[in-house]
Write a structure and sequence with these properties.
alpha+beta, about 30% helix, 3 strands, extended, TTHA0281-like, Double Stranded RNA Binding Domain
Amino acid sequence: MINYTAKYTKIDSGYMGQLVEWPEVLTEGKDLEECRAMLRDALNEMVLAYRQTGREMPNGNALIEQLAIEVQHVGQTA
């Protein structure tokens, strides 16, 4: 089993989902549940296409972490 890392971004029409390790796997849904389901479906289709063409699939299991940074506003000095 390979695990891929999903990234979800809130957009005007709902959510956009994309795999971090495989950016070509990208979809949208009206809510997070729909987006998640559509992303799984898109991943399954991409795996099938890669297998049929003999292409190597990207490695999964990425480590994702958030990094905080304080951003100064224009006109502020350090």
